[in-house]
Design a protein that fits this description.
Layout: E1 4-7, H1 9-22, H2 27-42, H3 53-62, E2 72-77, E3 80-84, H4 90-108, E4 110-119, H5 125-133, E5 137-145, E6 165-171, E7 174-181, H6 188-197, E8 206-207, E9 213-214, E10 227-228, H7 233-252, E11 267-275, H8 277-281, H9 287-298, H10 314-326, E12 328-331, H11 332-344, H12 349-355
Parallel strand pairs: 3-4
Antiparallel strand pairs: 1-12, 2-3, 4-11, 5-6, 5-11, 6-7, 8-9, 8-10
Helix pairs in contact: 1-2, 1-12, 3-11
The protein binds nicotinamide-adenine-dinucleotide.
C-alpha cells in the first residue's frame, strides 16, 4: 500500500485554493472548488475529493474547463429552468444552479432545473445537502460526458458513464437522508484511488477488455480499457440509462458516447427536481409520518456483520466527524499528482507543502 499523509482540513483547503488560483480563478471560485473537494474527502468520498484536482488543472490547461464562468439562463418558464454552465467549474455553476432552483421552489413550491455544459459537478450529495439546508427535498439525475466507462447489463463493453443518482430529504429533528451514489458498482474515482494505492477492487465490479471479470483497477485507469459493471444488475443499469436520458439528453442535450479518451475534461449534465415539502403538505402533515417511519427503521435489529441499520447520509456524517478531528488521509501518489499539477500552474512544491502544513 502507498504511504499515507494525514493533513488537517483547514491547511488542506488553503493548499488546494492556491492551486485553483494558479489556474487563474477568482478568490471566490478558488474557495468554492477547494471547499467542495475537501468536503468530499471529509465525507469519505476520496474519489471525488482533492484527487480530482490534477484532472481539473489538466482540463483548464487543455481549454476544456473555463475558469471564472457562470451559468446563463437558456429557458425561464415558471417552475422550469434550463441553464448553460459554459464548461465552468461544476463547484461554481452547480452551486449557482441550485441557488436559482431553491429560490424558484420557494416561490412556486417546486422547480425543475436542467443544467447542461457544467464541468465535473463533484460529489452530487453536496447539491442535495444545499437543498436540504434550505428545507427542500431534491432529486438529481446526472450523466457524465467523458469516455464511456460502464457496461450496460449484459454488455461486454462500456456504453455510458458512472451516472450518479442522488436524493436529499430533510427530516424534522434528525439529520437528513442523503442518498447519493454512482450507478456503477463503485465510482470510477474509487478505481483510481485503488490503483494509486496498489490495491485490487472488490470482485464483481469490473470487466477487462474482453468482457471477463477482473479485480485489477488498471482496466478503468489506463488503456486498453475494460469497464465497470452497473450496480444491481438490470435494475441499476436501468437507473443509469434513466440518468443518461434525463441528466444527459433532456437537461444537457448531450449524451456520453464517443472516444474522447485523451482529454482531461469531464462534463456533467444534471436534471434536478426540487420540492418544497411545506408547499405540498403543510408544515407538520408529513413530518410526523416520516419521523415515525425512520425511527422504526433505525430500531430494526442488525443482521450479523452489521453494527446497526443506518440512514443514507449517516456514514458520511460519521466519517466527517472523525476526519475533522483526526485529519484527512491522503495517499502519497495522489499527493504527488497534486504537486505535479500545482507545478504546471506555477505553484512550487515547497510552498504547497508549507501551506498544507507538511513542511
Ligand atoms: N460528478 C460525477 O460525475 C460523479 C459520477 C459518479 C459518482 N459521483 C459521486 O461519487 C460519490 C461516491 O459514489 P459511490 O457510488 O461510490 O457511493 P457509495 O457506494 O459509497 O454509496 C454512498 C451512498 O450509500 C449510503 N450508504 C453507504 N453505506 C450505507 C449503509 N451501511 N446503510 C445505509 N446507507 C449507506 C451513503 O450514505 C450514500 O448515500 C457520490 O458522492 C457521487 O455523487 C459523481
Amino acid at each position: 500500500m502507498a504511504d499515507m499523509l494525514l493533513i488537517a482540513h483547514e491547511p488542506l483547503r488553503a493548499a488546494m485554493r492556491t492551486v485553483v488560483k494558479g489556474c487563474g480563478s477568482s478568490d471566490a471560485e478558488a474557495d468554492a472548488v477547494a471547499n467542495n473537494l475537501v468536503e468530499a474527502n471529509l465525507t469519505g468520498h476520496d474519489s471525488h475529493g482533492i484527487g480530482m484536482l490534477p484532472r481539473y488543472v489538466g482540463a483548464v490547461r487543455e481549454g476544456g474547463l473555463k475558469v471564472n464562468a457562470h451559468v446563463s439562463t437558456v429557458l425561464d418558464a415558471g417552475a422550469l429552468l434550463r441553464l448553460d454552465g459554459h464548461a465552468g467549474f461544476g463547484q461554481v455553476v452547480g452551486g449557482e444552479a441550485m441557488a436559482l432552483g431553491i429560490e424558484r421552489a420557494r416561490a412556486l413550491g417546486c422547480a425543475i432545473v436542467a443544467l447542461g455544459n457544467a464541468h465535473h459537478l463533484g460529489r452530487i450529495g453536496a447539491w442535495a445537502e444545499m437543498a436540504v439546508a434550505a428545507g427542500m427535498i431534491s432529486l438529481h439525475f446526472v450523466n457524465v460526458l467523458a469516455r464511456p466507462i460502464v457496461a450496460p447489463f449484459g454488455g461486454a463493453k462500456a456504453g455510458f458513464g458512472t451516472n450518479p443518482f442522488t436524493a436529499g430529504v430533510p427530516l424534522k429533528g434528525r439529520p437528513p437522508m442523503i442518498l447519493d451514489f454512482a450507478t456503477s458498482t463503485i465510482a470510477q474515482g474509487k478505481t483510481r484511488v485503488a490503483f494509486n494505492k496498489g490495491e485490487p477492487v472488490p470482485e464483481g465490479c469490473l470487466i477487462d477488455g474482453d468482457g471477463r471479470a477482473t479485480t485489477d483497477p488498471r482496466w478503468t485507469v489506463q488503456p486498453p480499457w475494460g469497464a465497470l459493471l452497473p450496480f444491481g444488475q438490470h435494475k441499476g443499469s436501468g437507473l443509469a440509462v434513466l440518468c443518461e436520458l434525463l441528466g444527459g439528453a433532456l437537461a444537457a442535450g448531450l449524451v456520453g458516447q464517443g472516444e474522447d479518451g485523451s482529454r482531461q475534461r469531464v462534463l456533467n449534465g444534471m436534471l434536478s427536481v426540487i420540492i418544497d415539502p411545506r408547499a405540498l403538505h403543510g408544515s407538520d402533515g408529513w413530518e410526523a409520518a416520516a419521523d415515525e417511519f425512520v425511527a422504526g427503521l433505525l430500531q430494526i435489529k442488525p443482521r450479523e456483520g452489521h453494527e446497526r441499520v443506518l440512514l443514507a447520509g449517516d456514514p458520511e456524517r460519521r466519517t466527517r466527524a472523525e476526519r475533522l478531528a483526526r485529519g484527512l488521509p491522503v495517499d502519497a501518489t495522489t499527493w504527488q499528482q497534486i504537486v505535479d499539477a500545482a507545478a504546471s500552474v506555477g505553484v512550487e512544491a515547497a510552498a504547497l507543502r508549507r501551506t498544507a502544513g507538511l513542511a
